[in-house]
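User: Let's play a game. I give you a shape written as tokens, and you guess the letters that built it. Ready? Here's round one.
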């Protein structure tokens, strides 16, 4: 949004109060409040991940995740390589091809999955339903006789799926959901989701390089009844002798994980539990969004990239400004140099703007402190308009 005609800029003095934590990156995201690496339980460091202690700790990762998320009976949780990307890729390469595929995309990561399905897997029966940044595709087009691949929250567009009402309970295909910036921050209809992927570095502020894969019984049935016609590398293989390799979902990882990152993740899970569980984390993120909503309502030079209010993300909060891209870049740089907000520029493939992380590891008080700085920085870069 670059129209600066008749733009009124309220005079703003340079604020004195700064956020206690200026880390508003959308990934890796801010560590939880009170985080102290020296408080991590690190008895697994220097030990084999296949030792009794290692296996027990990795099993705890799977069990605690399932418990805190309150997953339905029969859902499996596994720790896999290569972050959320690895979890999605091993799903696409292991499960797709049994029936047609509908791919929904409205930002860069969803488009990336569509590209992999069409250009790398080269599947024939594929329908790609796209929408521009700020919008969602028409969900009524989806054929649930096909497998359906989609993101729950568009991390680079700030547009989320508001609910799961559009998903057919009697679907024949699988629903494969990249929920990396939604898990622990948004209500998910687990019974309607057959594969869910996420990474620690998003809502929980964990470390990178590890992915989490959640499978419904229907997804397990697909793995055990269908063998794709293409070869699978070792890190994608989830079956052994035609059956699900259950060991993966009990902590026997496909390759060696970082036990330090594992300790960091378990610390984050304990924090969520102590906070009051997933519902408390969701409420905290919603309160963060409310701070930004109030600011947007009071200032006509800034708006959400999401067109519909019900689809505004409460984690990756994407904003458009009445300014040129170069001015926005200057504003982001200014806020960083002042030490009040780091890494808040829009994603490289997204429209020029600002992206502020609002997940539960961010404090509302820090967002409240940031907002006046946003006004001040905007005034600085558009002062000659």
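Assistant: Ready! My guess for every position:
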């Amino acid at each position: 949004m670059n129209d600066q005609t008749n733009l009124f800029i309220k005079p703003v003095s340079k604020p004195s109060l700064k956020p206690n934590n200026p880390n508003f990156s959308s990934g890796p995201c801010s560590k939880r409040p009170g985080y102290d690496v020296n408080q991590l339980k690190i008895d697994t460091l220097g030990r084999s991940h296949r030792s009794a202690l290692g296996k027990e700790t990795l099993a705890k990762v799977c069990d605690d995740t399932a418990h805190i998320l309150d997953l339905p009976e029969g859902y499996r949780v596994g720790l896999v390589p290569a972050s959320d990307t690895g979890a999605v890729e091993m799903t696409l390469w292991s499960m797709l091809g049994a029936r047609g595929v509908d791919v929904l995309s409205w930002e860069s990561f969803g488009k990336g999955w569509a590209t992999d399905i069409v250009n790398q897997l080269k599947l024939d029966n594929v329908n790609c339903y796209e929408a521009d940044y700020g919008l969602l595709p028409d969900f009524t087009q989806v054929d649930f006789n096909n497998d359906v691949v989609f993101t729950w929250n568009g991390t680079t567009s700030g547009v989320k799926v508001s609910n799961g009402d559009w998903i057919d309970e009697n679907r024949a295909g699988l629903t494969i959901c990249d929920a990396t910036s939604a898990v622990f921050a948004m209500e998910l209809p687990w019974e309607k989701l057959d594969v869910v992927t996420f990474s620690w570095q998003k809502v929980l502020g964990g470390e990178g390089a590890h992915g989490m894969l959640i499978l419904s019984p229907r997804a397990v049935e697909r793995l055990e009844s269908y063998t794709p016609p293409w070869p699978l590398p070792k890190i994608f293989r989830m079956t052994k002798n035609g059956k699900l390799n259950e060991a993966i979902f009990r902590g026997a990882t496909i390759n060696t994980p970082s036990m330090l990152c594992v300790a960091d993740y378990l610390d984050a899970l304990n924090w969520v539990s102590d906070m009051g569980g997933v519902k408390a984390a969701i409420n905290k993120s919603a309160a963060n969004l409310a701070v930004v909503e109030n600011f947007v309502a009071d200032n006509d030079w800034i708006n959400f990239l999401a067109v519909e209010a019900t689809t505004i993300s409460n984690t990756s909060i994407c904003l458009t400004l009445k300014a040129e891209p170069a001015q926005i870049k200057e504003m982001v740089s200014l806020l960083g140099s002042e030490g009040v907000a780091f890494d808040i520029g829009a994603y490289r493939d997204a429209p020029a703007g600002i992206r502020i992380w609002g997940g539960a590891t961010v404090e509302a008080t820090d967002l409240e402190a940031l907002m006046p700085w946003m006004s001040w920085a905007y005034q600085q870069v558009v002062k000659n308009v």
